[in-house]
């Protein structure tokens, strides 16, 4: 295990993950919400539009996209 800084909230914690245990559940909730939104609507003009529609901030969206967490992302035109 490593001493790390959570990429979501900034607190320090011991783990091999990039988010603390408090933020892990928030990430799972955000990812589920985003996948539902993308399943229903795949026509977003920008990441900012998806952020506004979902309430998930752009930094977290970019992190989820980078880590291939969004199943419907391949269908949206950004």
Structure commentary:
The protein has one domain. It contains three helices and two strands. A hairpin with a 6-residue loop joins strand 1 and strand 2 (12-15). The protein has helices spanning 21-40, 47-54, 58-66; strands at 2-5, 12-15.
Distance between the termini: 37 Å
**Helix share of residues?**
40-55%
Order of helix and strand elements from N to C terminus: EEHHH
Q: Please, how many domains? A: 1
The counted number of beta strands is 2
What structural class should be given to the helix and strand makeup? mainly alpha
Number of helical elements:
3
Question: What's the alpha carbon Rg, rounded to whole Å?
Answer: 13 Å
* Oligomeric state, counting identical vs distinct chains: single chain
Largest sheet: 2 strands, antiparallel
Q: How would you sum up the global shape?
A: elongated
Q: Give the overall pLDDT as a whole number.
A: 88
DSSP strand content: 5-15%
For the largest beta sheet, what order do the strands appear in spatially? 1-2
* Uncertain regions spanning at least 5 consecutive residues: none
């Amino acid at each position: 295990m490593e001493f790390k800084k959570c990429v979501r909230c900034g607190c320090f914690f011991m783990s091999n993950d990039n988010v603390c245990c408090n933020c892990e559940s928030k990430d799972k909730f955000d990812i589920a919400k985003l996948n539902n939104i993308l399943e229903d609507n795949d026509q977003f003009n920008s990441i900012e539009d998806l952020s506004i529609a979902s309430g998930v901030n752009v930094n977290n969206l970019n992190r989820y996209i980078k880590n291939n967490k969004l199943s419907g992302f391949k269908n949206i035109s950004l």
